[in-house]
Amino acid sequence: MKHCTAPRFSTALAAALILAGGAAQAAVIDVPAGARLQAIIETAAPGDVLRLAPGDYPGNLLIDKPLTLEGPPDRAARILGERQGRTIWVQADDVTIQRLTIRHSGLSLPDMDAGVFLDKTAARAHIVGNDILDNSVGVYLWGSRDALVEDNRIVGNTGLRVNERGNGVTVWNAPGSKVIGNDISEGRDGIFSNNSRENVFSGNTFHHLRYAVHYMYTNDSEVSGNISRGNEIGYAIMFSRRLTVRDNIAADSAHQGLMLNATDDSRIQGNVVVGAEKCVFVYNANLNEMADNHFQDCGTGVHYTGSEGNRIHGNAFVNNQNQVKYVGTRYLEWSLDGRGNYWSDLSAFDLDGNGIGDTAYRPNGLIDQVIWRAPSARLLLNSPAVTIVRWAQSQFPAILPGGVMDSAPLMAPPVPPAWKHYEAKP
User: Fold this and answer.
1) In 3D, which of 141, 99, 102 has the Cα closest to residue 123?
2) Per-residue pLDDT tens for 269-319?
3) Do the Cβ atoms of 112 and 142 come closer than 8 Å?
4) Helix or strand or coil: residue 64?
5) Are 148 and 127 in contact (CB under 8 A)?
6) How buried is 281 (Cβ within 10 angstroms: 0-12 exposed, 13-18 middle, 19+ buried)?
7) What span, in angstroms and rounded, lies between the C-alpha atoms of 190 and 211?
8) pLDDT tens digits, residue range 354-407?
């Protein structure tokens, strides 16, 4: 037995010594401004920390071993790309890039040019606390698992038209990756995610973009606590399943604060949308729960079409020109377990004081249906015939067409935490 076990023990000990020796070789290397950083990367040992002094360094860099590139707290170490290709291309696991300014990637979308490009072989990358400016895509996660993109300022190239720009962060098939606490502006989309899963996009701020967050075929993921201001669309959630979309803010969106297109089996909760053509557009989205959201000051509170099996309750619809646009003849009940939604235009009493209106709320009538199907009928809105129809509907509810009904409307609006956050913002 001793003769058999001794070689195995020696082999294990040798392996441990080799690993220990590798760890001992890791070092902190101070890099002076203007140094040939690529040559230093090539000679560095895995695990080394390259500490860059303030100043300019030439890109384009290729990192193919675990390293840390670290700049000073004011981000005054600048990596300047060649205006072609990728300013920093990461091909190894466990690479950290922090407190740098990264500029001047190429501007080719088909070539996937980026300020920081994380390849499929770049698992567990940390891109933290950088200024990533004037690139095509800011950070591109191309199949990189469990990456963290956190606390960066990402600003796109303003010399291009919006549709020619790259996204702030592009996520493709990068399961387990997180994009947290970044400030993203002047790109095409803030975060564009496609064909991915188990991602978290949280605590980011988006402005001067087309879409703040654009989801395509991304499942089992979370979008939470983000702020979108002045973008065309806040959160475009499309062709995805089993998502949590909660506590986000979309203010002053040009078109839609929140769009659910073919989004299924998801929870949409505690979001605040203020000021948009449509607060929320629900199209072919099924089996979702939409609860405790606040939709205010939009042309249309919710445009709802082609969707089934959704549970809609506890939301506040405040001062929208049209609270609901539903073009259909089916009856939809928007309450759950005796709790409906708050409607700012509801005229009802609460005689028993239970916080629920004594009269059901119906946002749309026959005239709304006619106008949506034939917009030219608006010319007749002040005619005696329309007045008679409206009076008849109020006296004889049985003649109302199918549509949305809230049997338990709330007398006071719920106040989600995101609303308090919105009110506190300047």
Assistant:
1) 141
2) 999 999 999 999 999 999 999 999 999 999 999 999 999 999 999 999 999
3) yes
4) coil
5) yes
6) buried
7) 6
8) 999 998 898 864 445 544 455 554 555 455 654 554 445 554 454 455 589 999
